């Protein structure tokens, strides 16, 4: 499978604190006009060694999907083009929210041509 790239609008930048008291250690946003299981735009975590500051937009590659068993939508993981992530890195960076859900992470492999 060739990795697909997407443009993301960041609505919860790194450092954002939500009304539950969770502080976002990563940028979090959505893909405009791509609807998810909840009927809203697809939510995305941005995890990258090349991103260390709050963003307003991001262009990156889909590398994993968090499948929530107790929610109506999945969360996507995007990273910088050409960057690889480990399952452990994704778990560590998304734990701040994903700890409240029962989920599994599907790693998407890049096709070698």
What does it look like?
With 113 residues, this protein is mainly beta. 11% of the residues lie in helices and 40% in strands. It is built from one helix and six strands; from the N terminus they run βββββαβ. It has one helix at 87-98; strands at residues 5-12, 27-35, 41-46, 57-68, 75-79, 103-107. Strands 1-2-3-5-4 form a five-stranded mixed barrel. The radius of gyration is 13 Å and the shape is globular. The N and C termini lie close together (10 Å). The model has no long low-confidence stretch (mean pLDDT 93).
Task: Write a short abstract of this structure.
This protein has 113 residues and is mainly beta. It is built from one helix and six strands, in the order E-E-E-E-E-H-E.
Q: Uncertain segments of ≥5 residues (pLDDT<50)?
A: none
Number of strands: 6
How many DSSP helices?
1
- The computed structural class is mainly beta
How are strands sequenced across the largest beta sheet?
Answer: 1-2-3-5-4
Topology:
Blueprint: E1 5-12, E2 27-35, E3 41-46, E4 57-68, E5 75-79, H1 87-98, E6 103-107
Parallel strand pairs: 3-5
Antiparallel strand pairs: 1-2, 1-4, 2-3, 4-5, 4-6
Features:
five-stranded mixed β-barrel, 11% helix, globular, single chain, mainly beta, 113 residues, 6 strands, 40% strand
């Amino acid at each position: 499978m060739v990795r697909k790239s997407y443009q993301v609008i960041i609505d919860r930048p790194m450092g954002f604190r939500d009304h539950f008291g969770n502080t976002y250690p990563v940028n979090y946003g959505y893909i405009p006009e791509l609807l998810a299981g909840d009927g809203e735009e697809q939510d995305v975590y941005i995890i990258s060694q090349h991103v260390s500051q709050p963003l307003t937009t991001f262009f990156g590659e889909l590398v994993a999907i968090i499948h929530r068993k107790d929610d109506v939508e999945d969360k996507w993981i995007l990273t910088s083009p050409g960057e690889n992530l480990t399952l452990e890195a994704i778990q560590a960076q998304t734990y701040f929210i994903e700890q409240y859900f029962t989920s599994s992470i599907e790693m998407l492999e890049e096709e070698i041509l």
